């Protein structure tokens, strides 16, 4: 892999070279600005104005060329449209075939233009980030705020590429119209799922999706898994992933995610009753539930590291540990020991292999299937969350077999132990360990200015131009001169090796998104973990009632994601949905407080539903934004973005469960309000933090 400056030079289309962002010049400018600021702090105002002017000129150059090319494409399509109308009347099959090929050629030109826009958009983002870092100034916030929403905005043209969608629609409609060289009209508007006749349309759609970050339900769920894509994927890596792909192994990974979520929530309805039966207070259920999260804080790290070497071994180890943990959880009743109960849950947390599940999808699933696999991961987790309490509702038996007690408290442990044993057998029989990724030494090649390396454009689209040895040497010298402050290409691409290094890569926007993730997980854990205690105290609900309530909450996950992924995220900007969801979570928390006596079932259920649904919406949008603003170096390795978000969420659960246990010392009458106060404060703080970083989420 090479640094972006070299990647930009290698992928430039020869005849368009003068219209790309001059990334080398911008880096030199940043270096000069740093020196000026070091000499005199008074130069800062001049630097900001000058950098704004230079960047405006660069963006203007890109946008004017983009509009010029769009005009050429529109003119060509207009002429082809007139020819199309004539040929339909003549019913000439050979000429219709030629016309179809002409539309394909226009599609190829459009694809080149889309790649041009994408490379420039990445360049603008990177130079803004570089300026903020080197000059220690939040320039991006100012620049986006003043340019993005201006009626004459040119920045919007790059990041929203207004007008290109109309060209895409025209090409798609006409190619469908000419399908099979027939003049019969098949409307893509009436049949949006109609298969398109040429691969160029699929390539164009992929390019458009990458530019717009537009999303449907599948892509929304996929980003929900926070499996970070690399910024510039290459065909060679995707080919390697295709060779490592095995459907049954993927399904077993998804089954692992499902079973683990069932294991997490199956005990929630009965945890307080189990604690009471062992002589502890009902609020100790917080410690029982939270002990699993405590262990998961550590297990996520070693499983993430282990997945660098193997996938099957950590999954086997996870299954064995979970089998032991659930067995201990079930046996705690007959041993009459709260400590065995807690140890059992700790073992369950030590068996959390979600980091392996994410890593397998990221490394071993081809790019064209990765989003579906990611969506499957999220769906499996959501289904497990709903099934856990639902299964607990069915386990109402009470009998002994060989002096071992089977009742509503112990059966969740026995059922999950059996499930993990069966899973272990399937894993041993059907899982295929992917071959280790070979390290290939890639020799530096001469830059092919017309070759697009991201697999979207064929080599024949543009002609390569080999620069002379003198020109190449001169370019390399110039690159070296202006890249002294740059990270080396190898350093840029290699994964981080410690949690401290990962933390240093977190920008303020990423930190705020992780804070939001912590907040929503904290609020959800408070709601779910104390539900059995609160409903028993205030409403005298049975275990079955609590289980049904939790299952109903869990079943809202997928419908809510469908609503957000298919509609809201296409109607509003993600940052708008993010802020609105935070406010709704805050509203749900406020409504949950016991102010009126007696505390009513409608108030509790309504406020819980608002909190949970808003938190689910918030989680999806939050992880979508996190996948965009997080450094590409966190897309792989042990300390990846998925691990960081998992750790943030797990720590939130630990603190929430600890809060429930500690709040028990104030008495059951104060438990609800005491546990809700931290949620409210964290939520308000996250809303304020979001407002401060709002413009950086553009």
From TrEMBL:
Coiled-coil spans in chain: none
Domain SPX: 2-145
UniProt keyword list: Membrane, Transmembrane, Transmembrane helix
Membrane topology type: Multi-pass membrane protein
Residues that span the membrane, as ranges: 247-268, 280-303, 315-332, 338-356, 377-399, 411-431, 514-540, 546-565, 577-597, 603-626, 671-695
Family matches, as Pfam families: MFS_1, SPX
Localization terms from the record: Membrane
Annotated stretches, region: Disordered: 468-490
GO molecular function list: transmembrane transporter activity
GO CC terms in record: membrane
Bias-annotated ranges (Acidic residues): 473-490
PANTHER family hit by this protein: INNER MEMBRANE TRANSPORT PROTEIN YAJR (PTHR23510), SPX DOMAIN-CONTAINING PROTEIN (PTHR23510:SF21)
Family: Belongs to the major facilitator superfamily. Phosphate:H(+) symporter (TC 2.A.1.9) family.
Protein name: SPX domain-containing membrane protein At4g22990 isoform X1
Organism this protein belongs to: Nicotiana tabacum (Common tobacco)
Taxon lineage: Eukaryota, Viridiplantae, Streptophyta, Embryophyta, Tracheophyta
Gene for this chain: LOC107795689
């Amino acid at each position: 892999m090479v640094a972006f400056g070299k990647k930009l030079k290698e992928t430039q289309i020869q005849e368009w070279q003068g219209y790309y962002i001059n990334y080398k010049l911008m880096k030199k400018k940043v270096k000069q600005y740093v020196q000026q600021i070091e000499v005199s702090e008074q130069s800062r105002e001049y630097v900001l104005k000058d950098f704004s002017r230079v960047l405006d000129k660069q963006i203007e150059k890109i946008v004017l060329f983009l509009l010029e090319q769009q005009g050429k494409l529109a003119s060509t399509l207009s002429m082809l449209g007139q020819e199309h109308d004539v040929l339909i009347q003549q019913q000439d099959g050979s000429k219709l075939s030629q016309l179809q090929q002409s539309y394909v050629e226009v599609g190829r030109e459009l694809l080149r233009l889309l790649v041009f826009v994408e490379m420039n958009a990445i360049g603008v983002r990177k130079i803004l980030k570089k300026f903020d870092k080197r000059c220690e100034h939040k320039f991006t916030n100012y620049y986006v705020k003043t340019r993005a929403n201006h009626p004459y905005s040119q920045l919007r043209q790059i990041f929203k590429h207004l007008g290109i969608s109309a060209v895409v629609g025209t090409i798609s409609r006409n190619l469908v119209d000419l399908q099979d060289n027939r003049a019969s009209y098949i409307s893509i508007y009436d049949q949006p799922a109609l298969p398109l006749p040429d691969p160029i349309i699929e390539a164009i759609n992929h390019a458009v999706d990458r530019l717009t970050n537009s999303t449907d339900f599948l892509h929304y769920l996929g980003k929900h898994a926070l499996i970070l894509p690399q910024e510039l994927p290459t065909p060679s890596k995707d080919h390697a992933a295709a060779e490592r792909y095995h459907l049954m192994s993927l399904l077993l990974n998804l089954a692992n995610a499902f079973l683990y979520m069932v294991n997490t929530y199956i005990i929630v309805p009965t945890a307080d009753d189990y604690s009471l039966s062992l002589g502890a207070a009902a609020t100790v259920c917080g410690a029982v539930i939270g002990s699993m999260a405590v262990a998961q804080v550590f297990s996520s790290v070693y499983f993430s590291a282990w997945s660098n070497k193997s996938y099957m071994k950590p999954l086997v180890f996870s299954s064995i540990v979970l089998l032991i943990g659930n067995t201990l959880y079930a046996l705690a009743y007959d041993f009459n020991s709260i400590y065995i109960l807690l140890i059992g849950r700790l073992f369950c947390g030590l068996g959390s292999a979600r980091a392996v599940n994410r890593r397998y999808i990221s490394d071993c699933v081809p790019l064209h299937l990765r989003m579906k696999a990611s969506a499957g991961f999220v769906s499996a987790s959501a289904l497990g969350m709903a099934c856990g309490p639902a299964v607990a509702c069915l386990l109402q038996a009470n009998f002994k077999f060989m002096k071992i007690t089977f009742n509503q408290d112990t059966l969740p442990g026995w059922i999950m132990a059996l499930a993990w044993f069966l899973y272990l057998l399937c894993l041993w029989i059907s899982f295929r360990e992917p071959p280790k990724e070979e390290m290939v030494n890639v020799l530096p090649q001469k830059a092919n200015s017309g070759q697009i390396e991201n697999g979207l454009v064929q080599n024949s689209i543009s002609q390569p131009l080999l620069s002379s040895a003198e020109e190449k040497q001169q370019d390399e010298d110039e690159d070296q001169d202006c890249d002294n402050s740059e990270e080396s290409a190898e350093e840029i691409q290699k994964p981080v090796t410690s949690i401290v290094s990962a933390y240093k890569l977190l920008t303020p926007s990423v930190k705020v998104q992780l804070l939001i993730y912590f907040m929503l997980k904290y609020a959800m854990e408070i709601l779910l973990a104390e539900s059995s205690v609160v409903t028993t105290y205030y409403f005298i609900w049975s275990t079955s009632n609590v289980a049904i309530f939790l299952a109903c909450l869990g079943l809202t996950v997928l419908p809510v994601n469908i609503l957000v992924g298919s509609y809201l995220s296409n109607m509003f900007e993600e940052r708008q949905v993010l802020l609105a969801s935070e406010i709704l979570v805050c509203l749900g928390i406020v409504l949950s407080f016991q102010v009126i006596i007696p505390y009513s079932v409608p108030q509790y259920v309504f406020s819980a539903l608002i909190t949970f649904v808003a938190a689910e919406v918030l989680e999806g949008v939050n992880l979508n934004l996190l996948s965009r603003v997080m450094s590409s170096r966190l897309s792989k390795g042990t300390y990846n973005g998925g691990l960081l978000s998992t750790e943030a969420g797990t720590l939130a659960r630990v603190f929430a469960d600890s809060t429930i246990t500690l709040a028990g010392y104030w008495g059951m009458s104060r438990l609800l309000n005491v546990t809700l106060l931290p949620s409210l404060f964290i939520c308000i703080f996250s809303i304020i933090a979001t407002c401060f970083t709002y413009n950086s989420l553009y």
